[in-house]
Amino acid sequence: MKSLAVTTDHQLEIVEIPDPVIGEDCVLCKTISCGVCNGTDTKILHGTFKGFNTYPCLIGHEAIGEVIEVGKKVKQWKIGDHITLPYLEVGPDGKYAGYYSGWSAYSEYTVARDWQAMAELGNGPGTPGFWEGYYTQKVLPKDIDPVYGAMVNTLREVLNACKTFGFGSGQSIVIFGAGPVGLTFTTFAKLLGVKSITVTDILEEKRDEALKAGADHFINGSKEDVITEARKIYPNGADHVLDAVGINSIINTAMHIVKDFGQICVYGISPTLGMELNWADAPYNWSLKFLQFPNKVDEAAAHDQIINWVRMGVIDLKDYVSHIIPFEKILDAFAMVERKEPCKKIVIKY
Amino acid sequence: MKSLAVTTDHQLEIVEIPDPVIGEDCVLCKTISCGVCNGTDTKILHGTFKGFNTYPCLIGHEAIGEVIEVGKKVKQWKIGDHITLPYLEVGPDGKYAGYYSGWSAYSEYTVARDWQAMAELGNGPGTPGFWEGYYTQKVLPKDIDPVYGAMVNTLREVLNACKTFGFGSGQSIVIFGAGPVGLTFTTFAKLLGVKSITVTDILEEKRDEALKAGADHFINGSKEDVITEARKIYPNGADHVLDAVGINSIINTAMHIVKDFGQICVYGISPTLGMELNWADAPYNWSLKFLQFPNKVDEAAAHDQIINWVRMGVIDLKDYVSHIIPFEKILDAFAMVERKEPCKKIVIKY
Amino acid sequence: MKSLAVTTDHQLEIVEIPDPVIGEDCVLCKTISCGVCNGTDTKILHGTFKGFNTYPCLIGHEAIGEVIEVGKKVKQWKIGDHITLPYLEVGPDGKYAGYYSGWSAYSEYTVARDWQAMAELGNGPGTPGFWEGYYTQKVLPKDIDPVYGAMVNTLREVLNACKTFGFGSGQSIVIFGAGPVGLTFTTFAKLLGVKSITVTDILEEKRDEALKAGADHFINGSKEDVITEARKIYPNGADHVLDAVGINSIINTAMHIVKDFGQICVYGISPTLGMELNWADAPYNWSLKFLQFPNKVDEAAAHDQIINWVRMGVIDLKDYVSHIIPFEKILDAFAMVERKEPCKKIVIKY
Amino acid sequence: MKSLAVTTDHQLEIVEIPDPVIGEDCVLCKTISCGVCNGTDTKILHGTFKGFNTYPCLIGHEAIGEVIEVGKKVKQWKIGDHITLPYLEVGPDGKYAGYYSGWSAYSEYTVARDWQAMAELGNGPGTPGFWEGYYTQKVLPKDIDPVYGAMVNTLREVLNACKTFGFGSGQSIVIFGAGPVGLTFTTFAKLLGVKSITVTDILEEKRDEALKAGADHFINGSKEDVITEARKIYPNGADHVLDAVGINSIINTAMHIVKDFGQICVYGISPTLGMELNWADAPYNWSLKFLQFPNKVDEAAAHDQIINWVRMGVIDLKDYVSHIIPFEKILDAFAMVERKEPCKKIVIKY
């Protein structure tokens, strides 16, 4: 089968590798779609993903697969099921066909493991190697388009982040960045009952998108002083200030905006890992919370609510996807990302 | 002005009473609309409202009013604002123009009090007479129709109840009653991420409505054994069983359905106040939670989320209202309720 | 080895049964001590334990055992460790040597299973038969006397109940019953920061014990009207009313005492399972919470705090134990319980 | 009366100022005792207290006063009551007798305000100037010595911090600093059920004190590598790492010790306000929480539990106090602090 590798000299390459052979606790999936992740995928590509340093590797981690073969111990899935987040697993040498794992989900065939079947085989919760990520491999209902359905993987993460950050009734939030992630946070925070949201971005054309997504206010950071404007809206400061971009200096700005006992939330991953902070800019009591690799148990818990919202028409997956590109042209898709062309989610279709 | 009274012999009567004179901490409202509450209004009418025994009284408690006069200490409201939950307040004798208070909100003019202005006058939080209900008097944004807006008062209560009962991700709920209240609970529980909802009612025609509202399963209680069917769906029992009707025997049935450490939630108010319970039917660990008069601080906290949902198109207030009836015909509206004609919310328009 | 059986005609009998043979995931324990449980043990004896109907059976469930043999997969325990809550496990026929299980912990030898070793053998969390009770089998530190240490099993349950009921800062609690359970609740609630505790009992001699245990007030229920006196102390009602006795009529009394949005907590198990309740006596909003078989995950979570309290001198296990009786005289111990002789915990010593 | 001032050139001076005249909502207190706060007091003295820059000022904020005069609106206090946290209030010019307020509690006479009486006078919750600090002015029971009782003010703060940081069952904590604050955190965390505590300090003589206070492990930071040793004890990292000293570099060290989804808690106040952080040292998900000026509502909520612990003998206030110094010698007390002589709390007695 074909897959997408990052070489040791940080180039993308479509490679031919053997099809996966599944264990008794696994299902084999024909990959239907896989979302391109501007964050993790490109960081692995460029060698800037914190804590990751093994190349060549296979990448991709936002797939939907259709079950085409079922291991005999598996109980929760059957032939034809659409599954979220299938992967490829590595062997004892840490590799799959000579490649390290960057989750490998761009492969034409992928695998999901039934955690309950794992438990019966002695590899379940409580055993050394058990990975909670298996909890996130869940059935995508058939009435949801499995190509756009790749978006469910991302939306679960953002909803989980909203809950981990504690967004809720009566609160005020200032969100830095009106890209796809920032706007999704805007919509979800509003659905969760947040009272007032201000989005700030340096592009004026983001104003309408932000307001449409649910923002109450927009600050154009290229024309206005964000601290001054945010303080006009929230004289006592905002309950939360969210970095949905991943630029360290946002934290310094946010310290001037967050209220006493408020929280600065960092979801974006800065490519620069060190920074100078000045506590004098912040209130007496505040938190800085980094959420950069979601807890898989919590992410799994967000599945139902996203599925409910999609089925009830509260959110439309198509609103979050700008391009559907066949796997054959996946290098074009990445080229587009590299050129930083404005887009929402790109989904690779198989 | 005109208002709606319940006489000492439990008859409804449109009466003429003086217009309210407001204090410095109040706004005078021209009543725009007021929802008919099948629960409280009719119980007061029939003398079966627990703890209420003072007649004649004025009723109504789901109004929207437009501010037409502003007390000089008031800060949070201005002329033209639409306000949720205005009332009439009684004098030192506990009456308004000779009538006791059943909240009196069917009156043509009503009053809201600014709790912050109250505080500055020495009547705020911490003083003996302070009523937290003032927190629920909030601005209804102008882009929401103020006639259908009366529904916001009800929806806040139901959303608050969902949160007080603790409905959330991964849970299963069995809801007794597919009337307007039961269906609203169904939709809201689903929006809050509940995994599986079963609605049961004795009318087959409620099946489609329940499924449309978000139910995953429907049990026709007149044809099927509810306990048996519910246990098929939830072999270990349901996390929550909700009485959205107000019939004591539902609690006895629910004991057979609720799971260990589960909760029976009583939102409907039974006209019969005593009952026989048999612990043997329930699991070892369970709760019975009565929520029959919402905490006003919590109800106020639900305001933002309902407003957000309305403005984002998640819910449509028109879906919850079946009749808009002019105040002149309010007795016809109540006659309809007395005949138990199938309907959703009736809103009285002024 | 010897063990204690309840015969089919509900008699206690010391019986001779084979020693346990342990699996790879188990440790064999020499039983050191086992607390007598006036609740569960005597209910099983008399055939009134809800949901239990299989005789003859072996009883006892509050043991401490010393590890004398270690299964080869076991990691968390070693020879000589003192373990809380060892049991005997039944075979595929649901029996051990012909006896059903009432937890069987009065046996001279008992067994604990390492849940992590179970997981590696395919019987861990997520598999059908997994029992969370294994989490409660924890090491009792060597500096705690293992005879009095049997009390740790009970105290964990009560502390867990306090947390499940939500006892905490600023609250008021009325506790029915100044027996060992009621007094332990009194002390623990006070340690958890509860502001005011009133204990009521029908014996005047309990007054001093209650005050010493941490009560702020005592009501003698045989001389004073409990509702009247409790309402004098808490004019708006109490946050919690706890039945630490297990008499249905306490719930009816409690309804008059609990405040709006308060909770009636039932920890004692009434031998009579049905009762008549009158909602009219209660406030609009209230809960009735039954906790009669603790959640084992939560009970395990209480272990550390009890151990800390014992080691820091906050509580003295000896204060909770009135009799230490050798296993040979266990029938005398039960006779004493049957005669309802006033006592605290009886611990059987091996 | 006499009081303690910090002059514009940052010198301490005993000054003579007029006695306070109380309002209707206040009580006048004869100051009994006041704790010396090595943190705030000395920072104000040296001009390094974040956000404070008004001199000359009066300092002291850990007093106990005995009520000697009661304003006519006051309800919660009476003559003879011992009150926690009385202050002096400034006039409209922000001063008391020409001095700005550093809380002024070293004065011979101090004042407490009854927040409920304030509410009735129109200055309660909801009014612009209302200060939640009034909630912390509570009665110290007469059976607690009011000189040592000054310690209650401090202990409430630390207990509140433990709860705000979320210390509880099953957790592991590494505490930097075995001074009085660090040791109090150690004891309180243990009382709250924390499973394992490691204390680190650079003085070997702190080892025994730390273990006695409840620590499970001690690392001598002057002889051992703290990161290496802490990782040996907690291979996956610690749930919480607490800076109880106030040195920025502790945060950098803590990043290597905190587990994924763990929290670095900063209670000590660093005199240096800026620092360089390197995200690369931390896990993917973590929080940095600064608590440097407690929320007064929460601090008040900790009062009951501290009082309970003192009265039940769980903690002995005398263990926390090393010196009781008469007010006449208060300058000697501060000289001792300046010399950094090893000591626990110094209490000034009037």
TrEMBL record, chains A, B, C, D:
Any single Pfam family the record assigns to this protein: ADH_N
Residue ranges occupied by any Alcohol dehydrogenase-like N-terminal domain in the UniProt entry: 24-117
All copies of domain Alcohol dehydrogenase-like C-terminal, residue ranges: 180-280
Keywords: Metal-binding, Oxidoreductase, Zinc
UniProt xrefs under Gene3D superfamilies: Medium-chain alcohol dehydrogenases, catalytic domain, NAD(P)-binding Rossmann-like Domain
TM region(s), chain numbering: none
Keyword Metal-binding in record: yes
Cofactors required: Zn(2+)
PROSITE patterns: ADH_ZINC (PS00059)
InterPro entries: ADH-like_C, ADH-like_N, ADH_Zn_CS, GroES-like_sf, NAD(P)-bd_dom_sf, Zn_alcohol_dh
UniProt family annotation: Belongs to the zinc-containing alcohol dehydrogenase family.
Protein name: Zinc-binding dehydrogenase
